[in-house]
């Protein structure tokens, strides 16, 4: 029996003339991707017994929408026989057309059962897949249009909050003969006196996973990550969506573990666990294979030293990838995960705010590290219509949360004495005070750069600077301005757009708590605390102008010349579904009711 597709195909990085297709197969083989006139092929490479291929079609016409098929050793593997979905299309960029960018974060894969919908809400990525399939079949609403790009900006998987079927897989995987074992614990190299003296004496979560054995409800080994990605992306509707919409990604903490790299104290505590070295190596390596490779253009992939070594490895490349992943964790400057994507006259910066953090010294933390900071500063320039800065974590939080995080960082650094550093660290972990605002040096560096762009100090000012974010499990729009006296007048719109979650709705009790973050009184208290701890006033001032919205959502950002508009699609009540025919004669399926409120004009 020949090889087959285990996962994919996934349409990833595209330009006006190229398109990258990623697949996982169930055995070594030759993979070929073909349209009517263009063909690309690649042999699979192997990591921990899993087999992958990345094929890049070249010489494509700009603005094309071309049906394609995937062949494995000359046998057609995609589209699947008798598929009821419309053909998967390669869609290249038309730089002269409006860009329609879908984005969101925080996606828990579920079975869409009544129980799952009641807990997590409807899956907005699946809902959009059904809507797009209708559109492709000529059944969509008149105001729908094809997406140019899908940005998944964090928590594409939940490695530490797994579903029952994944927990059953872990149990079976770990008790089979020859099951892998976790490597021993390692300390964090280069600990300084400052990072050692935080006053904490508790592990980060104090969860009952045992002193030595891996937790039974979290993935640890590469095989387990591979299965988790399969669960996340093999849902038929979502699989079709990812096969036909160009998709770029960036990780957040749950792709690895909650609070990942929140502080130096956290890193030391987690490193004491015997299974952590295996977990972090597996998680970073799996992210590189499943998410990061497809983010790269063909030229960048060819220049990537890790890919060069893995692709030509004689046999299984696991030792190569594991060594890379371990070093990427030990040394944040070893590898740059951030990247740039240009579409039309707009620039999208996908910014890593997790793996590249420099938290070795808790008194001098940065969210990007020195190299990441320098890279981002070089990219934040004018000369474009729209500058989009996408990171998993919102840059501009509701003000009360922003001030609380700024205060907490100062306290953890010793602003109110050494004896409060330990309680400050405990509070940071308990309520997730780890966004841009908790890294004030990084926050001010980017804020000052954006103010300079808006003032024309870094080239012709763009029509907008748009921050995209996720993570917080509610969505909102915040409009910002440069404070009076900080810079000359400008017409550049500065806006924070947050879309979270796509499928992992916040429980009602937490919704009520987070609503306090948007109140003026809470913001004032936070501001007083932050100033008392010595936090600097931001160069930007901002206010919420939409939201917070707590339903599962998917956002659509349209960039048309100097004009920009955004809208959020919501699933307002997970109990309300209807049964109707699926696209192109698909079997009847329960569909979520999705509301599409009017858009918010940002510029133009």
Write structural notes for this entry.
Helix 2 packs across helix 6 (236-244), helix 5 crosses helix 8 (276-295) and helix 13 (399-412) packs antiparallel against helix 14. The chain is α+β, with helices and mostly antiparallel strands. The chain has 2 domains: 1-96, Purple acid phosphatase-like, N-terminal (Immunoglobulin-like); 98-603, Purple Acid Phosphatase, chain A, domain 2. It contains 17 helices and 25 strands. Mean pLDDT is 89; it is low at 186-210 and 576-588. The longest helix is centred in the middle third of the chain and has 20 residues, at 276-295. The strands form 6 sheets. Strands 14-15-16-17-19-18-20 form a 7-stranded mixed beta sheet.
Question: Care to give the gist of this entry?
Answer:
Helix content is 30%, strand content 23%. It is an alpha+beta fold.
Jot down its keywords.
604 residues, alpha+beta, Immunoglobulin-like, Purple Acid Phosphatase, chain A, domain 2, six-stranded mixed beta sheet, 23% strand, globular
Summed up, the domain count is 2
* Order of strands, widest sheet: 14-15-16-17-19-18-20
Number of helices: 17
- How much helix is in the residues? 25-40%
Rg over CA atoms, rounded to whole Å, is 23 Å
**Average pLDDT:** 89
Number of strands: 25
The CATH architecture category of the largest domain equals 4-Layer Sandwich
Give the overall silhouette.
Answer: globular
Superfamily (CATH H level) name of the largest domain: Alkaline phosphatase D (PhoD)
Which fold name fills CATH's third level, the topology of the largest domain? Purple Acid Phosphatase, chain A, domain 2
How does the major sheet shape up? 7 strands, mixed
- Uncertain segments: 186-210, 576-588
Percent of sequence in beta strands = 15-25%
Sheet/helix structural class? alpha+beta
Distance between the termini: 58 Å
> In the CATH hierarchy, what is the class of the largest domain?
Alpha Beta
InterPro entries: DUF7800, Metallo-depent_PP-like, PhoD-like_MPP, PhoD-like_sf
GO molecular function: alkaline phosphatase activity
Protein name: Alkaline phosphatase D family protein
Enzyme class: hydrolase
